[in-house]
């Protein structure tokens, strides 16, 4: 049985980190860095992330980040 690749992270006020990480690990799905030739080989060999789990608090800053994400 193949295991799913999971990205587990915490979320505070910087919601932009999640799409950036997925753009780095899953460049075919999220073409955020398509123009960055210098990053083309850096993520080679990393597994594709299939699922994202985020841990956060219920304070306003984190809640706003979840809404934006």
Characterise the protein shown here.
With 69 residues, the chain is of the alpha+beta class. The protein has one domain. Helix content is 26%, strand content 14%. The protein has 2 helices and 2 strands. The chain has helices at residues 17-25, 60-68; strands at residues 6-10, 51-55. A two-stranded parallel sheet has the order 1-2.
Q: How is this structure best summarized?
A:
With 69 residues, this protein is an alpha+beta fold. It contains 2 helices and 2 strands, in the order βαβα. Strand 1, helix 1 and strand 2 form a beta-alpha-beta unit.
Topology:
Blueprint: E1 6-10, H1 17-25, E2 51-55, H2 60-68
Parallel strand pairs: 1-2
Number of strands: 2
Strands side by side in the biggest sheet: 1-2
What percentage of residues falls in helices of 4 or more residues?
A: 25-40%
Note the gap between the termini.
Answer: 31 Å
* SS-based class: alpha+beta
What would the principal axes of the Cα set say about the shape?
A: flat
How do the helices and strands follow one another from N- to C-terminus?
EHEH
Please outline the major beta sheet. Answer: 2 strands, parallel
Mean pLDDT: 82
Keywords:
two-stranded parallel ribbon; 14% strand; flat; 69 residues; alpha+beta; 2 helices
